[in-house]
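Wed. Picked up where I left off yesterday with Ribose operon repressor. The coffee machine is broken again, so keeping this brief.
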Amino acid sequence: MISIKDVARAAGVSPSTVSHVINKTRFVAPETKVKVEKAIDELGYQPSSLARALKIKSTRTIGMLVTSSTNPFFAEVLRGVEEGCYHNDYSLILCNSGDQHERHISYLKALIQKRIDALIVMTTLADEIFYEKLAALDSLPKVVLDSEQTGFACTIGDDSVHGGELATEFLLKRGFKQIACLTGPAGHPRSRDRLRGFHRAMNEAKVEVNSSLIIESELTAPGGYEAMSKLLQSGQQVEAVFAFNDMMAIGAYKAAQERGLAIGKHISIIGYDNLELSKYITPTLTTVNQPSYELGLKAAGLLIDHLENKSELPKVIEMEPSLIVRQSVADKFE
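Structure written out below (tokens, as returned):
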């Protein structure tokens, strides 16, 4: 096995100089650095990441704990985190908890044992015990995504109250009053915020909310299908539907189309997230854009800036949602 001494001998320098080149811990003359890097390449030397971490007290690794890496929204956020890590020479360890308490705790322990430098958490229904354990890691820089504000970490998410208002106001401006909501679980913080925005917009427009048109389900395509089916089977008059994410909207499409309803004609649907696939379904989905990729990029950037430059982590950052108008919402005035 090639050692640091072999590299030093080949480059004609001391082992400590090789160490400084590898770890970037001291200025090394450019011509000396070139000789060391050439010797490393020619000998195929691979520095020990563990030894390096012990020496500089940093693994240049960020841990990320997510509910599900297969959810398209989470996948976009993850892409942003990965991009931010890669361009700053940090590694990312991803753990998918499936929102199971035992996995939350187990993966958190595993990440700490890996000596991560910082942690990003994005789960939908993390319980109190899990958050207590996170809070106890007071020396570990943390960012919590798409959640309520915490007292122990930087929280980043979109302004979902405003996003709920945007969606509802758009439906009202198109002439709809019988508006249904397909919400996520009652305990989901973003679902609660979007519902608050819906109520605010309806109240400001002086349009009565029919509580029986608010259907709770999972924030998934099957959840949207189930909620929309229940809504349509109720026999109540529904002109438009606000699905609390795009996956629910896609499920709602299927339920409506199975009953012979044309989206954007017989019934209008608006989603939330602006997933990539929302512009490829038929008709294309009008939705609220949540800057998912930028959210992940921001999380990685803030943590790395904190680690590298000792910059202070803000308590909360809210990113502005925006309306994306496509084909799934009709205009009653036309």
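Quick read: The chain has twelve helices and twelve strands.
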